[in-house]
Design a protein that fits this description.
Blueprint lengths: L2 H29 L6 H11 L5 H21 L3 H19 L12 H16 L6 H4 L9 H30 L7 H4 L1
Helix pairs in contact: 1-2, 1-3, 1-5, 2-3, 3-4, 4-5, 4-7
Pfam families: DoxX
Organism: Streptomyces iakyrus
Family: Belongs to the DoxX family.
């Protein structure tokens, strides 16, 4: 097997694995498939972790994951697909960051891995075993990479930043007890 063939096969495997996982996670949010909670349940969760409004946040995350994942798996519009998926995973990582890195403790390891892999695929390109290649890279041009990442970074910064401000404001309104209960009696 030639080196280019190996590279294209490797990119196909990365796209299928990463894109498939992302699409499945998005389908959990959007449709309640694979044990997910659908828009209603995911919307309630999104509200509880500071992404408001919850239903709109669930829809946006679900579309970025399902759409970005499906397009990555197909190797179509790879810069936009990878950037969208990476943005969604940045939002997920922000939720899990207080729990540390490792997934077993509720950390951001899994979201970061999916996001970085999606970003890497957006930059590297889909390889020859892709719809982008078949269509002459009409939606996979070099200029699309920085454009897709700039748009995604701006949107992600606004959404994650708004969430952080809401959480800080909510925490400022809370007051810790001055004395423990056992001393109050």
């Amino acid at each position: 097997m030639r080196r280019n063939d190996r590279r294209d096969l490797g990119l196909l495997l990365l796209r299928l694995g990463t894109g498939g996982a992302l699409a499945a996670h998005g389908a959990q949010k959007l449709f309640g498939w694979f044990g997910g909670h659908g828009i209603e349940g995911t919307g309630q969760f999104m509200e509880s972790v500071g992404y408001v409004p919850g239903k709109a946040s669930a829809t946006a995350a679900g579309l970025a994951e399902t759409g970005g994942g499906t397009l990555l798996a197909l190797g179509l519009a790879t810069p936009a697909a990878g950037a969208a998926a990476a943005g969604a995973m940045a939002g997920a990582a922000a939720v899990h960051a207080p729990n540390g890195f490792f997934n077993q403790g509720g950390g951001y390891e899994y979201a970061a891995t999916l996001g970085l892999t999606a970003a890497g695929l957006a930059i590297t390109g889909p390889g020859r075993l892709s719809l982008d290649h078949l269509l002459g890279h009409a939606v996979n041009r070099g200029w699309m990479i920085p454009a897709a990442f700039a748009a995604t970074a701006a949107g992600t910064a606004v959404v994650v930043g708004s969430r952080a401000r809401r959480l800080r404001k909510a925490k400022e309104g809370e007051q810790e007890a001055l004395f423990e209960e056992e001393y109050m009696e």
